[in-house]
Amino acid sequence: MSEKIPVTVLTGYLGAGKTTLLNRILTEDHGKKFAVIVNEFGEAGIDGDLVVGADEEVFEMNNGCICCTVRGDLIRILDGLMKRKGKFDAIIVETTGLADPAPVAQTFFVDQDVGDATKLDAVVTVTDAKWLKDRLKDAPEAKNQIAFADVIILNKTDLVTEAELADVESAIRAINPYAKLHKTTRCELPIENLLDRNAFDLDRILDIEPDFLEAGHHHHHADDVRSMSFTIPGDVDPDKFMPWINDLSQAQGPNILRSKGILAFKGEPRRFVFQGVHMILDGDLQRDWKEGEARQSRLVFIGRDLDEKALREGFLACAA
Predict the structure, then answer these.
(1) For the chain, percent helix, then strand, then coil, each to nearest 5?
(2) Residue 3 per-residue DSSP state
(3) Does residue 209 have a pLDDT over 50?
(4) In this structure, are 183 and 242 located in the same domain?
(5) pTM (2 d.p.)
């Protein structure tokens, strides 16, 4: 895992401040070198010109959204970058504001060469404090971008009142209560809060949500997008869990935006960490359970039209 090059997907709806954030990352004195992939919807791309002229190499993909017609371009550019190892420390992919992050994230699991050479470090979503409530009403992409995020930047906080800020933060938390949230003006945020987070593999979930272990905690309603978590106070049987989660993802994958879990497998000293994007599942055994650490199995779903009762009963049936 340590030899894989970390990739940060930078997303957010049109005008939220993604390019401002990217320029801040590239100009900060951090001593790191990044390869940047910029995608803009439309034939005449200008996003590449908006990115500051730093040492980083910028690869621009035009004439299509990164989440549909140009995924092949993304794979091709990543494959090319892999042949030049040693010239950069990490990769940043900035998506168009109209992109659904799901297919972007899937790229790192469905393409063997890309998956072998890179690891998806985190999905970072920039949101606009002033206009987000409106976008959540008329732009499903904005809601998906929040649901998929591991890190959320609530930007332009200087343009709203304290009451309005609390209201928009509540709207974000209703969609995704698990992501780390930062409030900013002009995307002013230390780079260590964004990059090399190892957030996508859930190792930090307890830092993000200290009360994540509480059974039934965080059951939110946000129009059609809901998030829910379940806990088994002990081990699960992998021979029960694996078929169940695979069948579930195949049957309900289109409605499951994200799934995540940290599981204690019976007889296994290491934690099994898994994540899903729609019907694509990925997981592996990671660090050992620490001495004194409660061996609990925890599961999170964020999606649409999910049957909470059926999900809970299905998961509980996997107990060892």
Answers:
(1) 35, 30, 40
(2) T
(3) no
(4) no
(5) 0.68
Shortest CA distance to 145 belongs to which of 120, 107, 175?
A: 175
Give the pLDDT of residue 45. 36
Alpha-carbon separation of residue 158 from 149, 165, 183, 319 (angstroms) = 23, 9, 10, 48
The per-residue b/e assignment along 15-42, b for 16 or more CB within 10 angstroms, e otherwise, is ebbbbbbbebbbeeeeeeebbbbbbbbe
Instruction: Assess contact for 154 and 42: CB atoms under 8 A.
Output: no
- Judged on CB neighbours under 10 Å (0-12, 13-18, 19+), 287 is exposed
Is residue 229 domain-shared with residue 189, that is, in the same domain? Answer: no
Edge-to-edge strand ranges of the sheet holding 57-61: 57-61, 34-39, 90-94, 5-12, 118-128, 151-155, 180-183
Name the band, by pLDDT with cuts 50, 70 and 90, for residue 184: very high
Report CA torsion sign: 276, 100, 28, 74.
Answer: positive
Residue 207 pLDDT level (bands cut at 50, 70, 90): low
In a domain, 206, yes or no: no
- CA-nearest of 193, 218, 141, 134 to 168 is 134
Query: Quick one: 223 and 162 in the same domain?
Result: no
Band (274; pLDDT cuts 50, 70, 90)? confident
Is the sign of the CA dihedral 41, 24, 104, 249 positive or negative?
Answer: negative
Number of domains in the chain: 2
Range of the domain at 79: 5-200
Helices (H), the chain: 18-27, 47-50, 71-82, 101-110, 112-117, 132-138, 140-147, 162-175, 205-208, 238-252, 308-316
> What CATH number does the domain containing 303 carry?
3.30.1220.10
Is 222 found in the same domain as 188?
Answer: no
Q: Which residue among 146, 174, 200 closes a domain?
A: 200
